[in-house]
Amino acid sequence: MSSEKKIQNACVIVLGDIGRSPRMQYHVKSLSENGFSVDFIGYLNSPPLEEIRSSPNVRIHELNPFPELELPNILKYLFKTIWQTLGLLITLVSIRKPKFILCQNPPAIPALIVAYFYCLLARSKLIIDWHNYTHSILAIESPNSPIVRIAEWVEGFFGARAAHGFCVTKAMKQDLQSKWNIRTTVLYDRPPQQFQSISIEDKHELLLRLGEDISAFRAISGSPDNITGNAVESTAFTVKYSSGEVKNIDKRPGLIISSTSWTPDEDFSILISALDQYESNANESPEHYPPLVCIITGKGPLKEKYRKIVASKSWKKVSLAMPWLENEDYPKLLASCDMGVCLHYSSSGLDLPMKVVDMFGSGLPVCAVHFDCIDELVRHGENGFIFHHHQELAEQLCNWFYDFPNNIALSNVKQDIQKHLKQFQALRWSENWKNIALPVFNE
Q1: CA separation for the pair 361, 427 (Å, rounded)
Q2: What top-level branch of life does the organism fall under (predicted)?
Q3: What is the per-residue pLDDT for 3?
């Protein structure tokens, strides 16, 4: 008998943009590396990871997006559901029969319904990856809509009929069990290998290159570090000498970063108000507060609204940029920053922001807005800070950057935080997935 394991077929469904669904991409990558041939179904508004695009074990099946129609919301939702149902069905009947379908939730409609009935006919297993609840997201804008109640019923009915499920927090596992008697395994998000600390040489090269588009990254005219005879190139943060040595500039700006989807479940005005307060403090005590550079990544429906608000500000000590980054540059930029900010609050109170996982993986402490289960990831004072409103965020930023980067009073705090971040960095997605998810897929 052959000692080689037979390749098994799997199907992964994302009824959303594959390129902006990192957790499902990590599932696909791990499946393809562990004996599965994967059919990956979803929209291709953004490019997937290169490892997925180039993998011989992955076939990507692009769904056609719903055309833009001028219709009342209820009719648009109905026609979109029919369109997505037909698109999913046509794609599913064209793929190899899978051992199981791994389906992301949300959205539940029509993904869970179509996947369930397909699995029933094909005698495949349905496994649901619970990231959040569809009904809680819909309830943000339309709490009294009948669609919210329908979505909740769909999640409960079809979720209970799945062969298995994964979820992202212990709180969600308990809620699924108590609400619908749904059995799940907690699979925490963990950073993949590309999210890690980087050398100062890599940081300098990145900031130099990104400085072509981000003016706040460029060398500050008249800085003492820039005018020494043996300095060959500088950014606002780093300097490279003719010997090849790279150093951080002593009196450099602070650098913070936030990644947002620009949706109603992230209140960006909190960060703007906190930056207003930092600007005020820095103007009053410029000897204690450095200039602050804030980078915001991501795209979404509210981006232009906030771009106009930021443009109306007359900040002198704070600068804010919203660059578009290549996939490979984002992890490096995280590792180059001094603090991350997370504005995500969970619509259900049961999911955790993956962006914080990426920041921790890059060795970056985080200020995160409070919600019910955030302490499963962010522990105040250990690996970051938790705030409830913009005043607390402003206070945390002002404390962190007071006499930056040489505040002796903060050195023990920063060392302790780095110790906890190194512990977090030790367990990566691949190892965690093999320990927890692979046995479920192999059942």
Answers
A1: 9
A2: Eukaryota
A3: 41
Angle, helix 390-401 to helix 269-284, in steps of 10 degrees: 40
Burial class from Cβ neighbours inside 10 Å (0-12, 13-18, 19+) for residue 380 reads middle
- 5 pLDDT tier (thresholds 50, 70, 90): low
pLDDT band at 265 (very low <50, low <70, confident <90, very high): confident
pTM of the entire structure? Answer: 0.90
What residue ranges do the domains of the chain occupy? 8-190+429-441, 200-425
Within 8 A by CB and 6+ apart from 38, the residues are: 9, 10, 11, 12, 28, 31, 32, 57, 58, 59
Q: What are phi and psi of 44, to 5 degrees?
A: -120, 55
Rounded mean pLDDT, 223-237: 73
**pLDDT tens-digit readout, 312-351:** 999 999 999 999 888 889 999 999 999 999 999 888 889 9
Residue 325 vs residues 108, 114, 232, 344, 362: alpha-carbon distances, Å: 30, 35, 26, 20, 16
DSSP, res 181: -
| H/E segment holding residue 11 | strand 8-17
Give yes or no for a contact between 300 and 261, defined as CB atoms under 8 angstroms apart: yes
**Residue for token digits 């869970």?**
112
| 166 HSE (CA, 13 A, CB side) | 21
Instruction: Specify the CATH number for 200-425; select among 3.40.50.2000, 3.40.50.10420, 3.30.750.24, 3.40.50.150.
Output: 3.40.50.2000
* CATH class name, domain 8-190+429-441: alpha beta
Domains 8-190+429-441 and 200-425 belong to one CATH topology:
yes
CA dihedral 156, 160, 164, 167 (to 10 degrees): 30
Separation of alpha carbons 176 and 274, rounded Å:
36
Whether the per-residue pLDDT at 4 is higher than 80: the answer is: no
Overall average pLDDT of the 215-234 stretch: 74
**Token digits for 69?**
């129609």
Distances (CA, A) of 107 to 75, 132, 440: 18, 9, 22
pLDDT of 302 over the 90 cut: no
How many CA atoms within 13 Å lie on the side-chain side of 431?
Answer: 7
